[in-house]
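Team,

Forwarding the record for the chain on the shared tracking sheet. I've put the sequence and predicted structure together so nobody has to dig through attachments.
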Amino acid sequence: MIRASWGAGLLAVLAWSLLGTLLLGAPSPLVATAQAQATDSDPLDVAVTDLLPLNPQPGDTITISGTVSNTSSRSVTGIEVQLRVSPQALISRSEVSAVTDQTTTRRGVSIGETRTDVAAALAPAEEVPFQVTAALDDLPLAGNGVYAVLVEVLTDEVGAFATSFPLPWFPNPEILDPSGIVVLAPVRAKVDMGARNDLRSPALISQLAPGGPLANVVTGNAAAAAAGVPVSWLIDPAVAQAAGRLAQDQASFPPSITDPGAARGTAGQWLSTLADALAADGAELRVGQYAEVDAAGAVAAGQVGLLDQSLALTASADALPPADGPIALLPDDTATPDTLVAYAQRGVDLALLDSALLPTTGQPAYTPSGVDAIEFEGDRSMQAVLPDERLAAHLARPSATADDQFLLQQGLLGDAAMITLELPQAPRLAVLLEEEPGALDAAVYAQALTALAQAPYIELSGLSALLQPDVRSEPRTSRLPGDDPDRLSSEYLAPIPGLQARLDAFSRVTVDPLAFAADFRDAILRGASSHWRTDTAGGEALLASIDDDLTEEEQKVTTVSTGTVTFSGNSGTLPLTISNELDQAVEVGVVLQSDPAVRLAFTPPGLVFVDAGKRVSIEIAVEVFGSGPLPVSVILTDREGRPFITTGDLVIQSSATSMVAALVAIIGAVAFVAMVLWRFRRKGGPPDE
């Protein structure tokens, strides 16, 4: 049974309720929104692109910059802009989103002294920049809070048009105990690489290239880290391993990549950026299960050994610096109680989960910390890291234009400020993770995080701070699904035990079994990755290629002796030649098998050492019983005598048994003639002629 941890927060809820009552106003409708589609009756679009200073203080003068565009088919005259400010602070995180989304009903009050001429006339499709300034002390802002600011456009002929954005205003930050935000940087991707380190598709290189998701995650977080943001990395070592092999020319590219040199450079640059980011101050590293093996599928298919192997590779990942500990990466609704128990039984005490799986009990009027303790029967427990959905939603906003980027940044800042304002004396730690890591442009992401790091009302922390025992936790309800219908099926995973058994058997004949099996072992785990859930045909093709490659390797250690071997007697020596076309030496035993088995006896030759790329000839003492040709199969075994391959079909013919058969025939013929003569004599011989 899973039990979510509980904490007390009644006093905090009452305090926030009182604060909401004091701040609540009766806002009136906004005149228009910046992003509403303009028509001839609504011809202007106003976009805000910058605010300086970013965190204004008492006595400062703010400068707001942007553009006004005429999207109609006629000219508009007498264009001016002015600010409007809502004197009552926003009361919730949802209202911050409404202001950013341009759906707020707050209109604010006009600030006449900010009225600024922009253009005498604006022709169709024409755009003009504007700047409006205001002394903070002259604005109707009260104490610490997040306020709605509107930039309103006025004209001679048509109505007013405005855009809104949230403005955090903290003239008295010293009375706050800021909450914190933990920035997570996940490095996760499907690794379609076979047992010979052959990249089977260009998808990974596309993700590593500038603008790709993996590049955006690493470049954006590296830039933020360089600006002082503590970043906590969650990395699948299979991704770093593959990038390293590609960069070091230890892997091959698919034919669709026409410039392998450039692709190697792409992988190398990505690795270099990642290394710098991991070395930055405040950086923390947690390593996920290798290849993100589908734990739910493995448990359901009775192949939990896949999880053991995946975690063993996690612990020994040589493509990354030492990590603070393993983490189960399960953010995509891939967690079931059985899955979490399987991880807990293997010593994994941290998991990244979708926050919808462990929602807070009831609806607290404040943001809970993004962590919860899950306890299991058998005195085991696990800490779940739960990303904040609202913070993620801000990073998922449109970001193609400068005004989009400004709203994304201000929305994130306003939302973070509201977390602290909910309980100013009771700090919590929220978790920031993109909904689709790497979807946001790296420069935009880094700029938003850098702005967050400069804010006086929030503190950025590493993942280790979230896991401290004194971090405030809230009661949560488990909504873990009893089953995971999207898991890899047992039919999909069915070929894996056979592949692993063959690999184990074959690798035992090599002088360095671990080195030989490593690439095949890793590839099999990559074939069991949860990333194949949405592309089972691709995963099946990967597993089939591993099967083909293993078959080809098995055929490189064989005997080359064939045909019929004739002994002069019923015993002799059987000549055999063993060939090893592997790139490492092997030691094999030899067993002969006949049908029926009772007709053959032989003396095993012991272990035979065959160097890489060489052949060795041996002779085996053999004794044959009975007459006729005897088909014999040659079986090569490992050091313990376990067979790994049957190869070579020989026929042993003993000339001694042939001579005995001829002699028996002659004796029989002589006896027959003698018997006939004896019968004639008893009858008195032949008649007279």
